[in-house]
Amino acid sequence: MATLDERTREQQTIWSRGDFHRIGVAQVVVGELLVRELQVHAGERVLDVAGGAGNTALAAARRFADVTCSDYVPALLAHARARADTEGLAMTTRVADAQALPFPDASFDVVTSTFGAMFAPDQHATARELIRVLRPDCRLGLASWTPDSWVGAQLDLLSRYLPAPSGVTAVEPPTVWGTREGLESLFAGTVSDLRVTTECFDFVHRSTRDLFALFKDSYGPVSTALARLSPADAETFAGEWIALADVHNSADDGTCVLRSPYLQVVAVSRQRPSS
Known about the structure:
The protein has a 7-stranded mixed sheet with strand order 3-2-1-4-5-7-6, with helices on both faces. It has helices at residues 4-16, 21-24, 28-38, 55-61, 74-87, 123-132, 150-161, 180-186, 208-218, 220-228, 231-248; strands at 45-48, 66-71, 92-95, 108-114, 134-145, 191-205, 256-269. The N and C termini lie far apart (37 Å). The model has no long low-confidence stretch (mean pLDDT 93). It is built from 11 helices and 7 strands. The protein is of the alpha/beta class and 275 residues long.
């Protein structure tokens, strides 16, 4: 059976396809709200894990924290770097896998991940790494899509059309991170406080068809599924994707407003036992 490392490389290729920045940039408010809830302040060392084009890292940098934005897709980090330069913000970028972060133990005062770490194949290794690089009694902040969200439904649809390659180790769905039970399992014994609130993000576009066109060109999993499917199956997938968006669409004027709930999580790392 293929290893989780091979699954990781597969995912890295998928997320490198297209230009996710075009989708992620609309979610700036999620990072701003998370950083505000974490009360990030000047001088703190902050690591944003699977940070993509830098929404949450930039929010922390605007508060004059010492910020590192990490991701395993270099092209997304290039966007983050360009955005920081445009705003005149001090921020470091680092290519890194959330499952094996290249930082010493207890390196950061705050660790964040917004719709990022949840997609790593080895979920327990990722949770351990987020805590390992965090100083004891310091803050972890996460934003993760819930199973009942539009994104959760879309991921279920994608799993039917873009299954793991034959023989690859099966993994739990990413939306495990979007449930309190999943978080309590992933961080069992490593956090002393776990505060969870349900928030919503609106995917807004001219229409659900126009939103699909954006995802087709820019969202790696959708682009990859379409490239691998036969023309007939690709057409069926597109129809199901748009129909699913129509079900979740709350707009009544022909435009698109998809309210997608997510969990905002703030936790405090436990003191490590002395050796």
